[in-house]
Structures are given as structure tokens and as C-alpha cells.
Amino acid sequence: MPDSPAALLRFKLATIDSEMASLHRQLTELARNRETVALELSRLAYPVLQLPNEITAEIFLKYAEDANLPRLFVLAAVCRSWRTISLSLQSFWTRLALDITAGDQQQSNLAKIQLPLALARAGAHSLLEIDLSVDNALEELLTLIAPTAARWPALNLSVGPPKLVHTILSWHFPKLQRLELMPSSKPIYSWSTTTPTHQPLANCPLLRSVILFDVDPNVLRLPWCQITHVELNASLGMTSCEYITVLAQTINLEVLDVYIDEGPEDFMEVKLPQLHTLTLRWFSATVNGAVDFINTLTAPALRNLTTNITSAGSHIGINAIADLLERSEVVSLDALTLHSHGHELGITAVEHIVAAAAPLGVLRLTEVDWDALDPLLAMLGSGGIYHDSPFLVRELHIQPVSGAVPYNSLKFYIDKRTAAARSADSESDVQVIQALQSYGLRKVSFIVPERLPMDFGSTDQDREHFDHLAALTSPEVIVRGSKVIWEMPGA
């Protein structure tokens, strides 16, 4: 023990330092143990954190397909592990979706911070998919994204003032493959006095897909001859007759989805030699105009057709489509989809279009009232007034809306089809035998909404027909909902 005062104080100081060092070591060890225990606890509380990083990364990329820019930053800030994964994925930051309403300063300020970070994380050479929905110019944001326009394979643009549209479309897009354009306020048409003389959209060598909502395609100087996929929808002061001039230029068009309400004042033939998939939509109130539009089209390569059946004047529109098939010399269709939206089916009109389209690979009937299916299935199974044998359909898919399930009619239809196939013998026409073999009924599916007591009051015979259908393996019969409904109390 030191005997001088100074030595005694030095000894006490050394003892304190030693104890402090020991406590620091204990604190460090406790902190390390705490981190380990907290990680184990988080894994128990959040099993998703136990997923391999590769799987988590795939989930992140799927999430990013529909997420706007702020949501990407929220996901990346959940925990250290997720932040590390998100920062390691350049493609996580390549879809930049901005949705900024006019006057929202908070959104604007946030975008000014997040956009440069996202661009840096995406890398200087990554292709960027841009989804831009803005109501005002936001010069700072446009200045940030304008230099990246040469890296955009896809542009989804929903903007307000025409001036802003012109500003964005005046950039160069050498990698652009898909363009979707819609106004956030008023429709885009009658721009002839303000359209800029320099319109680089006319020089987009890779552009193939164009989707326009309430945009007059005539004001966009697009390279229409190279476009293969077009979707056109007009509702705000525009009519489908404005599409005709542009469609006449789409000689390589393969897919067309169009809302139609009016045809041209002067007849104009539009031949689409490469078109294989066509979707035509119209309302009953505009069926006459829709017919005028359909009458302009010819599509000799057509393989897939989707259209709706309206209650009022449906036979007029359906007959026009049947005439389109005949005019185009379409021998058969791979798929025919008819949406009735719960309206009454015009059996004669449906028979006309099926007769023109058959043999069919797939026939889909959606939102059909079950009450309409009795005569419809009888027509398909008998051939109607046009044929003395069933229409050849390889797959029949039915999605009803309400009503009693016509199990008897479904059984009748399947029996007629299988009987027709068995009746072909060696003396039958070779082409008939080949058609029966190629288009033999392979699958029938019908969906019964489980929320409705569809089978209330069903008879034992109905149950017998249902059991017969459910047991079939050729053709395959898929019934969704009915098994649950049969077990409902009181059914």
C-alpha cells in the first residue's frame, strides 16, 4: 500500500480506470449479445426475414412493378436487411413512377429528393421505365429526368396542360418500345396549332406498342407503319372515326383493342394484313356507329377475337362482326370471347358469329345469365339452323352471373359432342374426320359463384347430372363453386 498521499491517489485512479475498462468490456459484450438476441427475436416475429436474399429480391422486383417512387423508399427503409437488398438491386429502381397533383408542394419536394437518389441507384446505363402523372410543369423534375429519356423502353404519361405534353414528347427516345398516353384533365386533340415542328416520336425505331386514352392519334406523328400493338379508347369529346386514318397506316399491326362508337362519314377500307388479335368494344347506344366502323375493317390473318354483346341491337353488331370474318375469309379462330355483361343473349346473333368463326379452338362466354344458357347450349350442341351437326369447339368456358345451373343442358351438350365424334366412321368424309379429331371437345369449364345459392331447389336428377359431369375425364370438366354449393344447408 503506497504511504505517500500522491502515491495513494495514483493507486485509486488506476483502480478506477481498471474498473471502468472492465465495465466497458462488459457493455461491449452485452451490446453484442443484445444484437444477436434481437436478430433472433425479429426472425421469430417476422418469418419473412428468414427468406434467402435471392427470394426476397425477387419479391421486391415484383412489388416494384406496380409501386410508385415513394413506396420504393418506404420498402427500402423497413429494416437494415431490406435496405441492403434493395440497394443491391439496380433493377428495383429502374421503374420510376411519379404521381404529383397540382399544388401539392409536399409531393413535389419529396420527388425532388427521391428522384436523384433513385436515378443514382438505377445506374447510369440501366434502361428506365417511366410512369409520369403530373398536372404542372415542375421544371426541376423535368430537368432531372430529361437527360435519361434516351434510356426509356417504356413511357406511361398522364399529364395536364398540352404544353407539358409537348415538352416531354420533344425529347429523344431511341430505345422507346411502349408508349401509353392519357390526359389527366381534358382530352388531347385539336392540337394542330400548337404541335411543335420537331416531333421526335416519328423517329422511334424500336416503338411497337401504343396505348392512347382520349388522345387523338392523328396529332402524334408516330411511325405507325412499324407499330404492332395498339389500344385506343375515346370518351371525352372524341369518336372512334378519328382512328380510321391512322389505322390505315398500321400495315404491320398484330394486336388491336379499340372502343368504337362511330365510323367514317365516307367509306374507307382499312386492311390489316398482319392482325391476329382483335378486341372490339361498344355500347348499345352507339351500335350503329360501331357497325360503320367494323365495316371498314378487313383482317385476313385474324385468329383471336373478343367482343361484347349488348342487349339493344346486339344482332346488328354481331352480324357486322360475322360479316368481317366472312369478308376477311377467316377459316377458323383460335379463340372467340363474348362478353354479355349480364344482358340478354341474342341466340340467332351468337349463332351467326359462331357459324362464321367455327371451328373454334376456345369459346369463352363471360357474365352470361344462366337462363340464356339452355338455348345457347342447345344451339351449340345441335348446330342451330345453319348446320346439322354440333359446332366444333375444342374448349368451352362459361362464367355466369346468376340463375339456376342448367346441368341437364351441359350434359346434353357434352353428350351431343361426344356422340358426333363417335359417329364418324371410315366412310365419312376425310375432312370431316380430321376436323372431328382436331376439334374434339377437350375441356368444358363453368364457374358457379359460391356467394349465391345457385342450386337451391335442385332435384335429384340435377345432382345426378352434376356427378356425371364431375366424373368425366374426356372431355375434362372443371366445375368451380358447385361442390361447395351442393353442401349448403337447404340445397
UniProtKB/TrEMBL annotation:
Xref: Pfam families: F-box-like
F-box domain sequence ranges: 45-96
Protein name (database record): F-box domain-containing protein
Organism: Mycena chlorophos (Agaric fungus)
Lineage: Eukaryota, Fungi, Dikarya, Basidiomycota, Agaricomycotina
